[in-house]
Amino acid sequence: MKGISLYSVTPVRTEASEAAEQSTQILFGETFAILEQKPRWTRVKLDSDAQEGWVDAKMICPMKAEEYASYRQALNGAATVVMPMAYAVSENNGQTIPLTAGTRLTNYQAGRFEVLGVGFRIDPGMVIAKSLDLNEQNLLQAVRFFLNIPYLWGGKNAMGMDCSGFTQIILSLFGKKLPRNASEQATCGRKISALTKVKAGDLVFFNHQSPMTNDQSPISHVGIVIDAERVIHCSGRVKVEKLDETGIFNAETGQYSHHLVSIRRI
To answer: pTM for the whole thing?
Structure first.
């Protein structure tokens, strides 16, 4: 059985309990396989990145097979919300729904999109109809609106993100599909041997212990390269910090907060 979430953001938890840890989130319009059902909880596997977890059953909408197939096909040419927060208005009942960056909009044209037969209006300035070209200028233009979004474990929206949720959402604006967790993202693309060879949009991976330079080191953090001396990442909040071959240097503490493990180009 398949399903879709029609809420702005839906928490996915490690166990069937409101007190359980949030492992990730489902954005509006994302689909998933329904793996198991309980009276109040449903275990799902996301189509976007194969993450599994438990969702409050009242926050999902089951889909018929033909409905699911048609919707998945429409996603191939979907537009994307590019700003941290935008608002769509239902043509059905006039209600407003907030949408966060990375939300994909099916059947989009000139500020209007449609989901399962329901039309919505949205400010065209909040949407990109096709992926951005990945270069320093476009990256800086996109990420400046995300600065100071607070850190939230399992989060990937404007009210809170973790480090890999941030990289996943930002690179999706450039047509790059990433898995959910930093350790998984560290296996994508190809290795870049040194910071002198980086390009804007490369991913840098870190640990918190000591400087290491091999890919066997445990990965605990990820950020996005702006250039050979700057990284944007979510640690406490989304921010730009100094980057060198040792890692991320925190100017406030005068110490390295994260030690560089590897660099990958997606």
So the answer is: 0.94
